Description:
This protein is of the alpha/beta class. Helix content is 45%, strand content 11%. Strand 5 and strand 6 (263-264) form a beta hairpin. It is globular, with a radius of gyration of 18 Å.
Amino acid sequence: MPKLSGEKHETQFKEFSKFVSIKSNSKTIFFIGSSRVMMSINPDLLNDSLPEWSSINIGISGNSLAQNLYLANFLKNKPGFKVLFIELSRYKKNRLNNNVAQTLGLINYPDSYYEFIHDRPSVTSFLNNWEYIVWDWLYYIQNNIKQLISPNGIVMYQMIGFAPVYYFNFGKTDSFLSETDLLEFSNGTIDMEAMVRVHELLQGQVKGNYRVIFLLPVTTMEKSELKFSVPIFQNTPMNNKWCYDSSFIQAISHPKYLADKNHLNYQGSVIYTQGLLKYIKSNEASWQ
């Protein structure tokens, strides 16, 4: 698979230089998730306060838990000690954008992805070119539509990583995760396919040089997403998840922190990253 040039990498993934410079003595925190992670976690703020760690945002627009876990299994094998923060969202078996695969240097992609999800590896040769074209086209169209709607206010999604938006465009708070949501959905049915994948990754911590922390999105387009994510989250060990306390949920749940119904703006990312920093400082001593 051809590689993108270093200059191209820098434009599409500004933290590429940190990513490729990871060594055996590195201590790296990866944040893996969808555009919600992409727009919520500012690694620069974390790096300023966590000098022993290098924080890298691997937020990718359109990712679900299936792609997040696949990436986590790839990233856990990077050199040094890793902490993998993983967004617990729906489990959809769509694939990564081809440019993402090239930039991160995913091994034997997309066959490795189909093998990971146990989804007929024999069909990959037929689907490869078609899927690459479709995903790249959707990514391109999405950004162009957003530019037409709000040419002066919107920042186009980067391919990977922190992409702040400096405005608020939603006047309600009903999309925020609430304590009532956590109670309502906690005893729901667990998706066993996804749960098996989660357990596989967690079990590898025993002999592996990494730690896994799951986090719930603080916003959602539809509350039905929580029917999937909350039961799995509740059945994940306490030391492998960031449980938002009531003060954090209250602090983040303000419309001025929303770029749209499902994404935080820059102000929201500051509040979210500050909460994340507090969690990391309280728990980093137990990670090694």
